[in-house]
Amino acid sequence: MRVGGPIPVNTDLRDERAKRLVDCAKDAFAARGYYATSISNIVERAGIARGTFYQYFDNKPHIFQSILDSFLHDLRGCIRRIDLGPHADSPLVQIQDNLTRVLELVLRERAPSQMLLNHVTTSDQQIDEQVADFFDQIVALIEHSLELGIAMKVVRSCDTRLTTYSIIGAIKEVVWYLTSSDRPQPAVDVLVQEFLQFGLGGILAVPQERLSEPTGSIKGITVSSRA
Fold first, then answer.
1. Distance CA 75, CA 60 (A)
2. Where do runs of H (alpha helix) occur along the chain?
3. CB of 66 within 8 A of CB of 9?
4. Contact (Cβ atoms closer than 8 angstroms) between residue 6 and residue 95
5. Whose CA is closest to 108, among 30, 188, 37?
6. Which domains does the chain have, with CATH numbers?
């Protein structure tokens, strides 16, 4: 069980040694996995004395928790509930914006993305519970969006929980591919449109070809082209 409290990683970036430890820990966890990574692996990558590690972190679970805290905080900030207010953007545009923010983050922070997507249970119950809680929140957000879509007759009638996990599974696999590949990648706006074409084309109660239009109106919902 973790002894110390999580350190907000962003505030540590002012200290170059702490930043280097965090960056090397991200790479080590992503490359080797949680169990196979040791403090020795991290400090050797960082070129920093082992004693210096303990000036910032209590142990391996502590630095893992700190990285996870920071990334999950940023990821939660990317995902916003659909606003149906009179002055809000259309629901599909809001979904598009959510996807854009998430993809920009995971492609910028590849190592934490791989850590989260490839997560296996650790010896730290608090870490496992935090990861599980995060995915529960994502499930709730997507399922709520589907229920709203069904009520608006934009999304076909479906088992919203099963469909939600299908969507999450598809996104996780694509993000894993993107973050673990050195191949040239399309721009984020192109990736977002591909997600919308594939994902929404399978659940919308309108002909799929309507989604291929760069800018169009689907029963009052506008799909905008992003520059």
1. 23
2. 9-12, 16-32, 39-46, 50-56, 60-78, 91-108, 110-117, 125-151, 160-179, 188-195, 201
3. yes
4. no
5. 188
6. 1-66 (1.10.10.60), 79-223 (1.10.357)
The two tokens of residue 17 are: 């040694």
How many Cα atoms within 13 Å fall on the side-chain side of residue 164?
17
Instruction: State the SS3 of 34-65.
Output: CCCCCHHHHHHHHCCCHHHHHHHCCCHHHHHH
Task: Give the SS3 label for residue 218.
Answer: strand
- Which of 102, 109, 128, 105 lies closest to 30, judged by CA? 109
213 — pLDDT class (breaks 50, 70, 90):
very low
Distance of CA 169 to the CA centre of its chain: 12
For the record, the structure tokens of 74 come out as: 């940023």
Dmax over CA atoms of the chain, in Å, equals 62
CA distance linking residue 53 with residue 43, whole number of Å: 7
User: 60-78 and 91-108 are packed helices; what angle lies between their axes, rounded to 10 degrees?
Assistant: 150
pLDDT tens, position by position, 59-103: 998 898 888 888 888 888 888 877 878 898 887 888 889 889 988
Residue type, 124: D
Tokens 């999950």 map to which residue? 72
The model carries a pTM of 0.69
CA separation for the pair 116, 107 (Å, rounded): 13
